[in-house]
Amino acid sequence: MNASRKQKLALNGGQPIFDRTSIPQWPKYHSDIIKSVDSVLKSRVWGVGSDHKAQFEEEFARFQDSKYAVAVANGSIALYIALKACDIKLGDEVIVPSYTFQATAISVLLANAIPVFSDIDPSTYNICYESVESLIGDKTKAVIAVHLGGQPANMSKLKEICNRNGLILIEDAAQAHGAEWKGKKVGSIGDAGIFSFQSSKNMTAGEGGTIVTNSDVIYEKAVAIHDCGRKPKSRKYEPEISSLNFRMPAISAGILLPQFKTIKAETEIRSSNGVLLDEILDSTNGIVPLEVDPSVTVHARHLYIMKYDKKQFSGIPRDKLISALVAEGIPASAGYKPLHQQLSTTLEFDSYPWISKEKYFDVKLPESEAAANQEALWFPQNILLCAEELLKMIPEIFEKIKENAASLIN
Ligand SMILES: Cc1ncc(COP(=O)(O)O)c(C=O)c1O
Question: Is residue 64 exposed (0-12), middle (13-18) or buried (19+ Cβ within 10 Å)?
Answer without folding.
Answer: buried
